[in-house]
Design goal:
Layout (H helix, E strand, L loop, with lengths): L1 H15 L3 H21 L4 H13 L5 H28 L7 H42 L5 H36 L7 H23 L2
Length: 212
């Protein structure tokens, strides 16, 4: 993901400095990377269904969070097939007119945009729960010190994760809106900047998860 979006910044800079051949080479790299990422999402419905089952058996503490996640899951159930059909049509695997293919692609991005917008509400509720939990641990004067320290570490990680996810969502929002609008004038350098922002914080999250 980082390569896909950061390459757009490099392409923009290369074109601005008169290095068109370098820009084209970067395009030649980024296109298959983007294509491969979409191809990998062909199995996305399986973990999504697993997650849908999981939250029903292990719901979040807030009922509102549960409802938001249910709606988000339903949105993604719609998103994946639309993206798959667009990708197959784009690569001439299935026969669909260009006009219809573009509409399918736009609608897939609209579903994604709806998910991202809902995610801001999700994060806001998570932040509220984090603040409550933080206040509760401060008030806790009795109890095992080791348990309290462990709880504080968990709370700290929760805070860091919510902040990271917020930046990721901020990065995704303009991209999803841009791709949801036919003939959008949002510049490609903007896609590169916001996409790189989201990719960077995803890398940070993956790095921290790998080292926990």
């Amino acid at each position: 993901m980082f390569i896909q979006y950061f390459s757009k910044i490099l392409i923009w800079f290369s074109n601005r400095t008169g290095k068109e051949s370098l820009a084209q080479r970067i395009v030649n790299l980024s296109n298959p990377v983007s294509d491969f990422r979409i191809f990998l999402r062909f199995y996305g419905l399986l973990p999504l269904i697993q997650w849908m089952i999981h939250i029903e058996h292990h719901p979040p503490k807030s009922s509102l969070l549960l409802h938001i996640e249910r709606i988000q899951n339903f949105i993604m159930i719609l998103y994946y097939p639309f993206e798959h059909i667009w990708w197959l049509a784009y690569h001439k695997v299935i026969s669909i007119s260009d006009e219809r293919m573009n509409k399918i692609g736009i609608w897939s991005c609209r579903f994604w945009a709806a998910y991202v917008i809902l995610q801001f509400s999700h994060l806001a509720i998570e932040w509220k729960l984090y603040k409550i939990r933080s206040r509760d641990i401060i008030k806790k004067v009795d109890g095992d010190e080791d348990d309290i320290r462990k709880e504080k570490r968990v709370i700290k990680k929760t805070r860091e994760r919510i902040i990271r996810d917020t930046f990721i969502n901020i990065g995704y929002l303009p991209l999803t809106v841009h791709w949801s609008i036919e003939n959008s004038t949002f510049p490609d350098i903007g896609v590169g900047i916001f996409g790189t922002l989201a990719a960077f914080y995803q890398l940070v999250g993956a790095w921290k998860s790998a080292n926990e």
